[in-house]
Amino acid sequence: DTAVSQTPKYLVTQMGNDKSIKCEQNLGHDTMYWYKQDSKKFLKIMFSYNNKELIINETVPNRFSPKSPDKAHLNLHINSLELGDSAVYFCASSQAGTSGNEVTGELFFGEGSRLTVL
Amino acid sequence: GQNIDQPTEMTATEGAIVQINCTYQTSGFNGLFWYQQHAGEAPTFLSYNVLDGLEEKGRFSSFLSRSKGYSYLLLKELQMKDSASYLCAVLDSNYQLIWGAGTKLIIKP
Predict the structure, then answer these.
(1) Which residues of B lie inside 8 Å of A (Cβ-Cβ)?
(2) pLDDT(A53) > 80
(3) What is the DSSP letter of B94?
(4) Residue (of A18, A37, A15, A117) closest to A75 by Cα position
(5) Is the pLDDT of residue A102 over 50?
(6) How many Cβ atoms are within 10 Å of B58's Cβ, its own excluded?
(7) Distance between CA A104 and CA B26 in Å, rounded?
(8) pLDDT tens digit string along B44-85?
């Protein structure tokens, strides 16, 4: 069974379109994340949700809107896609939250969704 | 600002030993992680250090010096499958992971 699964794995679309990436984890973790990895290979946190509540919202454009219907799912919706949005987007989950809970030391990543905006 | 520095690329020979360094400047410290990422795949957890010293796990070891803001990942008996990027990440005072850009390790026969 895949622990963290995200779909689609590849997404090619035109500028200006709206797209969504879905993520689900079956690990029972309380915290889920969205990361963006650009061509320079930096992993940058975008959002973090703990028990369906937004904990971290880095300075990403408001065209990006995360939605967490329950603690096992964290979807990412992107409006009005731009060329600079092309990247690999990773969903991840962990047992540790950002509220000072004990750190278990491990993020579990999905396989990544490669978004290409033309 | 917060900063994680590690070499962009390193090359080593199969069977040899390689040390990948990481220096950090962060607001607070709640631990340092090393992740391995093969091309086109997701990062996978290698190690977590929160106290000074060396943690050994099979062929991989990770060292931490909090006073120096320094860590290294030591890989022994290198195998071709160890060719990957190695990412250093620090958990800051807000329990947010700050990532380095990764070190691409190339293993030659």
Answers:
(1) 30-31, 33, 35, 41-45, 48, 50, 85, 87, 89, 91, 94-97, 99, 101-102
(2) no
(3) T
(4) A18
(5) no
(6) 7
(7) 20
(8) 999 999 999 999 999 999 999 999 999 999 999 999 999 999
